[in-house]
Amino acid sequence: MTFSEMWQQLAEHQKATAAIHMRDQFAEDVDRFDNMHETLHGLLFDYSKNRINEETIVLLCQLAEAAKLPEAMEAMRRGDKINTSEQRAALHTALRSSENAAPIMVDGENIIPKLHRELNRALAFAERIISGDRTGITGQRITDFVHIGIGGSDLGPQMCAQSLYDYRKNVRVHFISNSDDADIAQKLEKLNPETTVFSIASKSFATPETLLNAHAARNWYKAAGLPESGIARHFSAISSDVAAAENFGIPAECVFAMFDWVGGRYSVWSTIGLPLMVAVGETRFREFLSGAHAMDEHFFNTPLRRNIPVLMALLHIWYNNFYGSEGHTTVPYSHNMRRFTSWLNQLDMESCGKSRTVDGERVSHKTGGIVFGEEGVNCQHAYFQLLHQGTRLIPVDFIVPMTTPHQVGRQHRFTVANAFAQAEALMKGKTLEEARAELADLPKAGRESLAPHKEFPGNRPSNSFLIDRLTPFNLGMLMAAYEHRTFAEGVIWGINPFDQWGVEYGKVLAKKIEPELNQAHGLTHDSSTNGLIRFYRKCQQD
Ligand code: F6P
Known about the structure:
Low-confidence stretches: none
Family: Belongs to the GPI family.
Structural class: alpha/beta
Protein name: Glucose-6-phosphate isomerase
Oligomer: single chain
Catalytic activity: alpha-D-glucose 6-phosphate = beta-D-fructose 6-phosphate
Number of strands: 13
Bound molecules: 6-O-phosphono-beta-D-fructofuranose
Radius of gyration: 25 Å
Number of domains: 3
Mean pLDDT: 96
CATH topology of the largest domain: Rossmann fold
Strand content: 5-15%
Number of helices: 22
Largest sheet: 6 strands, mixed
Helix content: 40-55%
Enzyme class: isomerase
């Protein structure tokens, strides 16, 4: 069947099954969980609380086949230039492969030895900082490592360093990304330039936010009266434009290359992971890569029906395109993973926020949805009301570590119980009769007026991702699953999940507006933009 025939068939299947309540499906099929979960190493993926039956999955897998997903997966693995608008391969999976992996050729060159050379250099650099072997210019031990980058050059390493806080070594790691000077001012005021090393991370080495902060950091260092020669000991860089980093004044031995076949939001596995290397050390960083590699092996070698990232993508598409759902929330029930959704925002929304197909045609269906989230249990006290009783259908991904290294009272058990309870409540709901029965003690009038407010429709879908512990391996595995989900969605929607032309336009306009903010001459924008600029000018004079 063709893609559009499969699409049509799924639309009909949705109509035929939409009224079925998951509560009844669970009651009728005691094996539902057994048939609708997958395990991989320390991960359990339960997708049984979805508005699907076996036929739905079969049809969705056929849609993936009609979209030539298996062929696209192979093309990605091979290193084909699947990022067609930028004529680049997308080889983040190569970054997690072993040094002995089969050659992957890009432009006639095997990239495996080259990428491992850079990785090993960065890991050795990190280890020298951790061990105290690499000191500052005045001979003091390095206590703080400050990573300056934005978007993909920030979110991945920042989220991971925070997630793996329990594995931290002795060097504190900080992140500066925002051009709002509060970010850099607040971070640097606590630091000593003699014991601080910076990494300037920018694939392009042209991102203005990062360069502004890099210059401010260098000025801060110089303002402390430390010698110019010390820049070489206190600054490092990560970029695919090694020459630009060297021009900034960073010596070649402290510049770590990244490659144009790695997209920014897929780059934490590359030398961009340097702050994570400093945070947790070489052994843990390699475990993190191994976890992602394990998911890659699963993704590339498992039939669609049992393939975790493919199932994740298909379920996302099922709600996005056939149920008209507008958003998807991901909630890690883990304080350390509280930035997971920020990383996922960029991964999914920058990748799938496209309305042209790879061939430049307008897409004929909705593409990327709104990805948002907050750590559990806090989310329950913020936006979960809308998930339970609101008018929109927002599927949830629960991510829950089963054990914790901390033994503070019964906090962890309580947190896990809440995650499980939310998924159950969303699925089951509460009927009007059940609500009335709960209020049996009230007089009839009170009962009748309150019961509708206590009714929950239920039938609200969720996936649960349980990990035995929040380890570097499990984190890598989970992140790779989301990366592959994003890729698979992109393929099925017919878009390119590896470019991001949409963020360029605003950057160009900002370049024009910035000098105008302090100029007296006339403005040629629309009246709103002119009005905003004038207000800015007025505030500078007050
Ligand atoms: O936000 C646009 C973007 O190009 C992202 O894709 C990228 O991760 C980020 O800017 C930073 O880019 P760079 O690493 O080149 O500084």
